[in-house]
């Protein structure tokens, strides 16, 4: 019971970060790896739990007219295809190689996030909906493949892709990111479940915590300044990444 409560608490933190600056996978996966879970199981279980945060976060954004925006319909089927393709890649890889890639991808995500100005000016959405962009559609599809495979920083990358290619502002991008995340995570989790790699004993309390965190995170995305959320993301990720790297370099 105490362990489940602690896991739910961690899920709350993961859920908050996931729907604000992105990085729920970056925070959650290393924690499960440090608990001794195989890499594929850690990724699958965290993605299962993140369904809770994106579902509640999407509901909160839906009630806010400022973040209400439509996106090109073509994105939705492409997001599903990309996510499923990426999840198949993850479950079919060698575990040792996957662990090494987790550390490398964390380092890349941290560096890009550190170099990115989350307080950059907001771009107004085009009248009648976001503008269509072939480059934007291709970028979102590639990110969805990446999300199905690992997904660290996917939300952050997606927010800036939506701002750059579709002309959305930060709040609108966070709202669309949450909806796309709900779709692609759901698609990849269905693949993980068919492979039997989800640890539901940890995943369910983690999901409940993420659901609460998703509501808090969606509210935070509209109130707390982006630079402060970036600091939270960087601090937690660096601490977890350092511990994971230490364990990888110094065998017990």
Automatic annotation (TrEMBL):
InterPro entries: TM_pro_TauE-like, TSUP/Inactive_protease-like. Keywords: Cell membrane, Membrane, Transmembrane, Transmembrane helix. It comes from the Bacteria. GO terms for cellular component: plasma membrane. The chain crosses the membrane at residues 6-35, 42-61, 73-90, 97-114, 134-162, 200-219, 231-249. It holds the Pfam family TauE. It is a multi-pass membrane protein. It is found in: Cell membrane; Membrane. Belongs to the 4-toluene sulfonate uptake permease (TSUP) (TC 2.A.102) family. This is Probable membrane transporter protein.
